[in-house]
């Protein structure tokens, strides 16, 4: 198994998408890229810690490559929005990739270049950050869409369109 850490706005939304991606075994919501040790959800939401809401994905590279993971990531959120995703505004909702080594850093640059080449007239503002310390989010944020999220009006408005985008644009990357 290998690990990818990405931030694409609300971690509930990004987690829901990646739980449906082939080769993914676990998805953990958390915080990364800030200056405060052991941040809380409330502190991160204030925008004052510098952390991004992110997910840490464990995946099988023999089933899905890191490059394909990044293509799914860039293709299922809006990488052109600086420090926001829709109504979620602030640096905690930034689009960012947190490579764990030089090879991942090179793949991240290549993925952003690929996305930009395929979307003439638009430019991804996704940052490549790190190294940085990962902090798991509180337990109630884990697997949120599968539980509380399906009763949350925000999630019901935002997550299904992302899942439809995944199924439409990445049909061969979706779990059966």
Automatic annotation (TrEMBL):
Keywords: Oxidoreductase. It catalyses: [thioredoxin]-disulfide + L-methionine + H2O = L-methionine (S)-S-oxide + [thioredoxin]-dithiol; L-methionyl-[protein] + [thioredoxin]-disulfide + H2O = L-methionyl-(S)-S-oxide-[protein] + [thioredoxin]-dithiol. It comes from the Bacteria. SUPFAM superfamilies: Peptide methionine sulfoxide reductase. Gene3D superfamilies: Peptide methionine sulphoxide reductase MsrA. Has an important function as a repair enzyme for proteins that have been inactivated by oxidation. Catalyzes the reversible oxidation-reduction of methionine sulfoxide in proteins to methionine. Belongs to the MsrA Met sulfoxide reductase family. HAMAP family: MsrA. This is Peptide methionine sulfoxide reductase MsrA.
């Amino acid at each position: 198994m290998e690990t990818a850490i990405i931030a694409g706005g609300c971690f509930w939304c990004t987690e829901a998408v990646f739980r449906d991606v082939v080769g993914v075994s676990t998805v953990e919501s958390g915080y990364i890229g800030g200056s405060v040790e052991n941040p809380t959800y409330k502190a991160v939401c204030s925008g004052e810690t510098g952390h991004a809401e992110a997910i840490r994905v464990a995946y099988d590279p023999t089933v899905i490559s890191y490059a394909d993971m990044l293509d799914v990531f860039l293709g299922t959120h809006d990488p052109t929005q600086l420090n926001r995703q829709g109504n979620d505004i602030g640096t905690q909702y930034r689009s960012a990739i947190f490579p764990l080594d030089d090879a991942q850093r090179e793949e991240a640059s290549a993925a952003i270049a690929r996305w930009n080449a395929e979307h003439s007239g638009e430019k991804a503002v996704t940052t490549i950050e790190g190294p940085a310390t990962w902090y798991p989010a509180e337990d109630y944020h884990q697997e949120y869409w599968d539980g509380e999220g399906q009763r949350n009006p925000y999630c019901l408005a935002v997550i299904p369109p992302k899942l439809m985008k995944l199924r439409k644009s990445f049909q061969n990357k979706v779990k059966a």
